[in-house]
Amino acid sequence: MRNEMSSYRSARLWAAAVCTGVFLLFLAPFAADAQITSSPDVNTSQLANYQNECAIIKNPTNHQELFAACNHAGAGLFAARSTNLGVTWTYPDPVDRTLADGNPGQGPTSCCDPTLAWDSFGNLYFGYIDAAVANIVILISTDSGLTFTTLATFAGSVDQPTVVAADTTAGTAVWVVWNQSGSMRARGAAVTGLGVVAPFGPLQTIPNTTNCSFGDVTIAPNGSVVQACQTPTGGQGPGTIRVNTDPDGLGPLPFNAGVAASTTNVGGFDFIPAQNVRSIDAEAGLAYDRLPASPHFGRLYLVYTDETVNENNDTDIMVRHSDNDGATWSAATRVNDDPAAPVRSQFLPRVASNPLSGNIGVCWHDARNSPGNNTMQEFCTISTPVMYPAFLANGQVGDALTSGNGSVPPAPGEANIEFGDYSGMSYFQGRVHPIWADVSNSTGDNPNGTSRFDAYTDAVLGGAAAMEGDPHIATVDGVYYDFQGGGEYTVLLDSDGSEIQARHAPIATDFTIGPNGHTGLTTCVSLTTAVAARVGAHRVTYQPNLSGIPDPSGLQLRVDGILTTLTPAGIDLGDGGRISPTAVAGGIEVEFPNGTHMIVTPGWWAWQSKWYLNLNVSQTSALEGIMGDVVDGWLPRLPDGTSIGPRPAALPDRYVDLYKTFGDAWRVTTVSSLFDYAYGTSTKTFTYPEWPPETAPCVVPKQTSLPKLFDEKKAEEACHGIKDERRKVDCVFDVRVTNDTDVAKTFENTEKLLAGATVTTVAADKAPTRLEDAVTFTAAVARKVPARGAGAPTGTVQFFVDETEVARAGLDARGQATWVAKFPEPGTYRITAVYTPTERTELLPSRSGEVTHTVGGTPKSR
Amino acid sequence: MRKKWVGAGILSLLMFAAGGLPARAGDSLYGKVTAVKSGDVMTFDYGDGQYEIRLEGIEAVKDGPLAEQAAQKVREMVLGKNARMRFEGREKDGAMQARLYTDDEVLGIKDVAIELVRSGLARRVEGFDLKYGELSAAENEARAARRGLWAGR
Description:
The complex is a heterodimer. In chain A, strand 42 (556-559) and strand 43 form a beta hairpin. Chain A is mainly β. Chain A has an eight-stranded antiparallel β-sheet with strand order 37-36-35-48-47-46-45-44, with helices on one face. Chain A has five helices and 57 strands. Chain A folds into three domains: 36-462, Neuraminidase (6 Propeller); 463-707, no CATH class; 758-856, Immunoglobulin-like (Sandwich), CATH 2.60.40. Chain B is of the alpha+beta class. In chain B, the strands form two sheets. Chain B has a five-stranded mixed beta barrel with strand order 1-2-3-6-5. Chain B has a two-stranded antiparallel sheet with strand order 4-7. Chain B has helices at 8-17, 64-78, 112-118, 134-145, and strands at residues 27-36, 41-45, 50-55, 58-60, 82-90, 96-102, 122-124. Chain B is globular and about 45 Å long. The longest helix of chain B has 15 residues, at 64-78. Residues 1-24 of chain B have low confidence and may be disordered. Chains A and B meet through strand 7 and strand 21 of A and strand 1, strand 5 and strand 6 of B.
């Protein structure tokens, strides 16, 4: 926010410079404050007494599904599942929300230390230490965590189990690594199908790991297995992070002798103010870049905690990498970006790499905002294989500071175990999902208020991005610049293939306008006139009538090339993808299967008989394209991932950088274009390779030129209703360029949608069900553009079964409403939830996609 | 803090009924017990250092023959043998609270605190129990069998 404001101020300075005829080029504002975004925290447990030391995992075969497990202060382990990207959570055992608690069919009774893995066949592995603290238990679920059976039990004096599963060139494997009687042990098994796991191989004692523990294990793309542990296990440091590699995984070779990957000043039981009872360890973690197309495919990342000076409590999160499966290691990079002073602790890190992008996510507990350095918020950051070792600016994920006193006051004789010795994290399909123990009750739904931990999670993504008006770009990492190209461009591209393209149409004028605050350029202008997107398996376009004849009745929506009418029910694209009308007439909202939201707000420019679009994207993990992240340069990266470099001093060089090197690189081709075209036309028809000219005149064939800029004062009056100061500046700019005050209304509509647009999802607590079962449907309403501190949406939800309203309920403090259903006959039912906001709020209504629910049993009519 | 004996059993039963027993989720160090000061305080050597540990959740008899019996039982179970301490937190006086387990081929894996309570050589701390009520079960067994400090009651 600090840099956003500085950028805005800079823009105003540029405007002032124009007005006064003074060129303040030396200001050269460059607001590369990279941002990640998160949503309001979600309390997964909402369970009495405390939960901590959590694990979380995403289903690689269905990225809507997550599973979480934590230590629990009663019998068993807390266990929960989500089928909607972590928005709402249900429980395999809804009665007590725990597994392995002695109930039949839920695994041997547990002590603690849950660990999770999910393979590409859909096998979910749930490991833990049993109640006798004498066995590692591995459960397996083949139905996404609804039920479990015992897969394996490893007996001994055991501790610190970690289970991991991955596809390799040698097949799919599941490995378990743990400490037993002081040394690290490992066993692996081949997996060949859903529920088809070979017996675990022989027990391996990993060499040179005596008195080494508290680490991690990962599987390389080539099948090698790498474990990390910390030695010595006791004391407050210094110590060493050791790494051992089994070069052939399930093959006959054993783990090697290992290497010292790093030293650390964090000992096995290192007391810091935020964890002054339970202490921390370095918590080494491992992750492989598993994307074959990545420039660093097979790179191994190691995260751990270090302390700048032993026992000074200034603990930092560090990352190293290895390009030879752990044999040698790079220098360390500090991940947390807080100032060196005052001393603040960062601790309990987790690392994961998105197998679909190679991006690296790191999350940790962070006391930077804690005046006493004794409370924390969860923080995260992301990097890409190209930008590493740089990371995006750290993002605060936890909504509120939480103390470690989530298990106090303890009963006499009981110790306070604080946050525990690890937290959890999953990174897949562009979303980082951390999970941590939190006693802030920022969600307002902790049954114990602020006295006992609940398990909180969140979804961490790239930032909100925008392309508004006379294209004013906001990149996913918060850099603002104008891009006046002529043609069709890739504006956002995600690692899973999701893509957004935009068409920029040149506008003929007798003037140029600028300079832009970021580029410093004064050029001819253009407008965004059409958008196309790859949404899962579908191609969606929203563009003017293909005939080219101006049509003020509206833009045309096509799905896979077929002209489509958008009804209030929206269009289900499958796998979470959906198109729906906005609450503002003429606009569309597109939900991508990966969770990205896009809002398109059109406006009709009568004088030029043109539609133009504001394009706003939120909750995206996409980092490439015109709106992609700006790393090590002054513009987003080029398609090959490289930086365009620092901003040139000379304006002509900037022009070449922006419109030739960068702009031309992101033009779509006849092959890559997602747009629909009339017969005989293609992307080339809309390409103006020389647009924008560096200087006036700005001539466009067959287009009447705008003679002059609109009066600035009148433009300001037209835009007075815009609340966002940056958008107001853009509005004034665009009203002046277009000589059309209706442009201000389009900006107002965009602002209205960004502030109030909601998304409604509905999920059943179990599925399928039998006729005799009651099933609870939970509708969750969230703001489409997350806003920390804005509070949960308020209002009512109507539940529909096959388009007949069956129930209506008010939203609770979490923005959720439930309906307990009992279906009259077996069959398949379509469930929908429709949200109506409370009156006099900025919130806008929304409708969920359909959820199909199957009910089995014997028909009553028989 | 460790003097309140009355009503401990009732309180623990209430806690158990409410499902509110503490989750013990400490981390393990492996090594040997090198000295036993009492039934519930001993020195644990993990190879690269030592901790003086206090067994979590119990209070061993401190005086008289039973105190020596308690210390002797601990010596028999773990002194000089492979063992595991599971660190549960640092007390205000700096003591390291831990659970202590045998890691021995003959004895197998046993929780020393539970064995002391089961033998009537230690009491469960008021209001405290393990995840599944193991300490209260052991104490009830000792009471029923009139072992150690429960003899003659």
